[in-house]
Design goal:
Blueprint lengths: L20 H4 L3 H18 L3 H33 L8 E3 L2 E4 L1 H32 L6 H54 L13 H20 L9 H17 L1 H16 L7 E4 L2 E8 L3 E6 L4 E5 H6 L2 E3 L9 E9 L5 H13 L11 E7 L4 E9 L5 H18 L31 H5 L5
Antiparallel strand pairs: 1-2, 3-4, 3-7, 4-5, 5-6, 8-10, 9-10
């Protein structure tokens, strides 16, 4: 039987020298004529040789069919008798993508499909042997033999021809994998401060590694694409163009948020856990993702702000520059000129000293910020290391200021209150002493 010219697979990137199925079976008529001539010559020399060949083909195919069906049937019955827990599920973290029951059914279905496939193959071979017995059906048998051999030859040549490209793809993937692993180890060392690079901060490590890994994946895809089977076909190119158009049209806002998230990371405006104020939202940073930044407000509400909006607004970070002293807490009051400024300073510092979370080292201090028409403006400043408690600190500070001034019969005339000096009663409110909590109060339960 005459062999068809062979060539297989893509000989290199960007070329396609593969042999089509039509090329492999182009000489089908000549092959059929040659094989028929061989059998006719064999009939002239050995009349029973063709019948012996046909009988051998039939016998071998039927025996193989019976043996394989028995073995595979036994295997299927064994799988069906097993309980589902004997099969390992396909699991991703804590989620079963394919359960044990489905895995059992999958294996049983796979072995049944193999059984039917082997049955079809051996049945076809036996049918060819039967057709070879009669001279009237010999041409049909020869035609089936040539067709089957041609298809197998085409598949074999395609597989062998694609092996160089497949080997190239595997080498590229292996190099990419170990390169990503090596770069990941470097950035892990930077993140854990085992590796120090000048002017490169540890909080940049995770974002930088993600960007480099994304670029390596994209470069790998570009390099591998020409080696994929059918990469030069119009259908493949059309799908690539369609995906590119969808990404370009639908990802404008998403890309803006991603870029903004990267810029925010490298500006070091804040970190997770910092107390910040962004776009009139004040609270603690609980998450900084690729697209949004989530803030837990002082009222325990989670607010998601797109990264592009974060980048376009001022970011006030109350936790960034704590230093050794902490954050400066300040408030302003106005007192009339009839009160000595030394007295006001002492009362304000005393109020700061009674306020929880306001430190005594460094000591609080008072600034006379302005001399207005009717009063003097005083600014009390104290240090705290609890920026998350600022609302409560300010509330307690203001309450202590009221107690101190009213306790010493000093009027507070801020912000626009004027005391009339015509003999009217003073505007100083009485100071109500707050009882100190006792040890037994915490153990008391409300009466029910």
């Amino acid at each position: 039987m005459q062999q068809s010219p062979a060539g297989g697979g893509n000989s290199g990137a960007g070329t396609d020298s593969s042999v089509s199925l039509a090329d492999v079976t182009a000489d089908r008529a000549e092959d059929i004529s040659a094989l028929l001539g061989f059998f006719h010559q064999l009939d002239g020399e050995e009349p029973l040789a063709r019948l012996m060949i046909a009988g051998s083909v039939i016998a071998v195919s039927l025996i193989s069919l019976v043996v394989t069906r028995l073995l595979i049937g036994r295997r299927v019955r064994h799988l069906e008798s097993l309980i589902p827990s004997k099969f390992k599920p396909l699991r991703w973290q804590a989620q079963d993508l394919v359960s044990s029951e489905d895995m059992k059914n999958l294996w049983c279905s796979l072995w049944r499909a193999i059984n039917w496939g082997i049955t079809a193959i051996f049945s076809l071979v036996a049918l060819i042997g039967v057709l070879m017995i009669s001279p009237w059906t010999l041409s049909i048998a020869v035609s089936m033999i040539v067709t089957v051999v041609g298809v197998l030859n085409y598949l074999w040549l395609g597989l062998v021809g694609y092996l160089p490209n497949l080997f190239t793809i595997l080498v590229i993937l292996v190099v990419m994998r170990y390169l990503v692993h090596l770069i990941g180890l470097v950035f892990e060392g930077i993140r854990t401060r085992r590796i120090h690079i000048h002017n490169f901060y540890p909080e940049w490590a995770e974002t930088s590694f993600s960007l480099i890994k994304l670029m390596i994946f994209m470069l790998t895809a570009v390099i591998i694409f020409p080696y994929l089977p059918g990469s030069s076909s119009p259908a493949f190119q059309g799908i690539s163009i369609f995906i590119g158009v969808l990404v370009s049209l639908g990802s404008t806002t998403a890309v803006a948020n991603v870029v903004a998230g990267v810029v925010i990371t490298y500006t070091r405006a804040f970190q997770v856990g910092d107390q910040v104020e962004v776009a009139e939202v004040r609270g603690r940073i609980v998450e900084r993702s690729t697209f949004v930044t989530r803030i837990q407000t002082l009222k325990n509400v989670i607010v998601s702000i797109p990264n592009s909006m974060v980048l376009s607004n001022n970011v006030i970070n109350y936790s960034k520059n704590m230093g050794q002293s902490g954050l400066l807490v300040h408030t302003t009051i106005t007192i009339g000129y009839d009160v000595p400024w030394q007295t006001v300073n002492d009362l304000l510092i005393a109020a700061a000293g009674k306020t929880e979370h306001v430190g005594s080292h460094p000591e609080p201090f008072v600034l006379q910020t302005s001399l207005d028409d009717n009063y003097v403006s005083y600014e009390l400043n104290g240090w705290t290391r609890k920026p998350e408690e600022l609302p409560r600190i300010y509330s307690n500070l203001h309450a202590n200021i009221l107690d101190e001034f009213h306790g010493h019969n000093v009027e507070i005339t801020s912000p626009a209150f004027r005391a009339m000096r015509d003999g009217n009663a003073s505007t100083v409110a009485p100071v109500i002493e707050r009882p100190e909590p006792t040890e037994g109060d915490d153990a008391k339960e409300p009466a029910g």
